[in-house]
Amino acid sequence: MKDKIHVIVWNEFVHEKEHEAVRAVYPDGIHRVIADFLGTDKTFSLGTATLDQPDHGLTEERLATCDVLIWWGHMAHDKVSDSIVDRVQKRILEGMGLIVLHSGHYSKIFRRMLGTTCSLKWREAEELERIWVVEPSHPIAAGLGQYFEIPYEEMYGERFEIPAPDETVFLSWFEGGEVFRSGCCWTRGHGRIFYFRPGHETYPTYYQKEVQTVIANAVHWAAPRVTITGVENSPNITVPLSPIQKKDVHFAKAGVIQQGGKNL
Hints:
Elements: E1 5-11, H1 15-18, H2 20-25, H3 30-38, E2 44-50, H4 60-64, E3 68-72, H5 82-94, E4 97-101, H6 108-114, E5 121-133, E6 147-157, E7 167-174, E8 179-188, E9 191-196, H7 209-222, E10 249-251, E11 257-259, E12 262-263
Parallel strand pairs: 1-2, 1-3, 3-4, 4-9
Antiparallel strand pairs: 5-6, 5-7, 7-8, 8-9, 10-11, 11-12
């Protein structure tokens, strides 16, 4: 067993450089705030990665030791290299966990893993968001009450074009009346995936204690139970586990089967 859960917080880190309103809330980047609060959990080993780094900060060596990858993106989904998406997908199938936050629903890796458009309705109007805990026994909901509220958030509304989640932990209601499946779990290959809706870049959502609790819980939930390498291979097994009896069987057209020169 590893003594630590190795976590990489990935952020495209574009908004914070280009927009003063975002920089005012997250001066060192969204990834830094997430890594800082996760760092209070001594069972985590934290690192960060951003779009502008070589290999987007996701080299084969770093991913090989990563247990859980957290992904935040918005402006630059199309700037993420397909080869890096391939690399991340391979690790998820092998057992690495993936946590996708807010507008990461349109990221290449999330759409790749879910196989749908992942589109939704949205509105930015500083709305109250009430997040209902609909699966209170789920590990990701540990330490939360019946619901919690975020005073100002961007609205995401149904229909959320995703495959039916294996588990839906949270359901959001917004001041304008819309609802949204805001905490969804899937398994792909040997890896676990969690999508968590809150986190618009101009609001201080990631400083809120309940949001931090959810993300920390999700890291523990998504951490690998097992890592299986070579899942992309399809080996030809020429040596069977048990002897296979030689059969004098011939197959003909129209579904006729012959054995020992006789039709069966």
